Amino acid sequence: MKSVKTQANFLLKVLLFLFVTGCGHQQADNAEQVRKPNILIIYVDDLGYADVGAYGAVGVSTPNVDRLADRGMKFTDGHCSAATCTPSRYSLLTGSYAFRNNAAILAGDAPLIIGENTRTLGDMLKEAGYRTGVVGKWHLGLGDGSVDWNEAITPGPLERGFDYSFLIPATGDRVPCVYVENHHVVGLDRNDPITVSYKKPVNDEPTGMSHPEMLKQLADKQHSNTIVDSISRIGYMTGGKAALWKDEEFPDVLTAKARQFMAENKDNPFFLFFSFHDIHVPRMPNKRFVGQSAMGPRGDAIVQMDWVTGQLVETLEQLGLAENTLIIFTSDNGPVLNDGYEDEAVELLGAHVPAGPFRGSKYSAYEAGTRVPTIACWPEMITPGESNALVSQIDLFASLARLTGVKLAGSDAPDSHDMLETWLGRSDSGREYLIEEALTLSLRHREWKYIRSAPSVRDWTKYKGVESGVSEVAQLFNLHEDIAEQNNLAGEKEDRVMQMDAILEAMIAAKGTRPGYGQEY
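^ thats the sequence. predicted structure below, dont judge the formating
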């Protein structure tokens, strides 16, 4: 039990912090009396709402993530902004809906999609005095449209607000299969230059289509191009043999870089965006984790993800920073089982339900596409609990600006709302209106979910075993009464459909005019 003196000092610090952050956006000298919290965003890939123990997982154990939930605020209605990875990352880092920039899943050689005049979360926190770093999957493009992987690669994260970056350029299932640290490919032998193409083969080396006997996991046609580390990928690549990664080494390599960044910046406030490759395909967990779940490679990748999360938290504890670090743990979109590789994710699922009570998955307009595990843990400031407030990753930009005393310009983070009180568990008020982006657009308003009609359903979603949620008729659900979105009320409540469609259209047209169009309705 804490002593009376310790409790009094803690209360004084809390009151001082609340005073400083409550004084608008002034960065007065008083702010220096309280060290700004470190900020760690732990961003998992393809992790479903119920893929961790704190949200109901079975067949897999996640003690480190569960500990974050026990020590922090667990959100039951937390969302990424889109049902796929690139759009969600774009929205989180820019505070802008991805459809405004036509952001979609990018090829591995795509140019950087964050424009030169677009401020990022990194830019904003650098202004607040933070050292900023990104480690892990990027998938927002690099370069200006003609990347030469053998030279300095720019623009990239260092030109968009980050002091340090160590990247998987796109995803593990796409070439180039190399790490990029700051501006350069790691370990490149210049006598073996890299060539990448997403249009045609660049050599006569084996592919997944021509030599399936070389593969650890068989893959569909899309994922059956160049073979690296006995896994066939999307796209063609030659050269760079000394720089090629090994999939099983991801957890150790990325964790080491994250720990190094935190240790080197322990005396300054820092922001680290740790972006997992797990549990995205190809799922190739390190041998230490193979067989540690009842669900095969997908479950083992969840165990691996949990271990890495524990390592990050342990590092904060060893550095004496855990109490004053705000950790946001969440995912870039909902779960998917069959996503291009034969790893028995469907066959070994057992009683586990990755999306929990929600309909849909990754790619889907239904709730499971964007409703993801969302935890905010900050021992010094957040009282543990559970919140049913509607929250979105897109609001982290404005909320962290408020937290760190930065005044946003009118063009900054146009769709981001200041929800700091909710993130810290001091308010149960959530978003009034929130757009969810998939193959069509949806609108959440409290308990209501409206899915805009679209002309067709893409066949590839059926091939993946995914309900796209796209329909030629509008869909309306009352999530308080029908959390699984089974009863379409659009025909019975035409006035509400028309109202929500008009609000959605106004939100699209408003381009996020601050302080937030959602508050205008």
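The longest helix spans residues 296-318.
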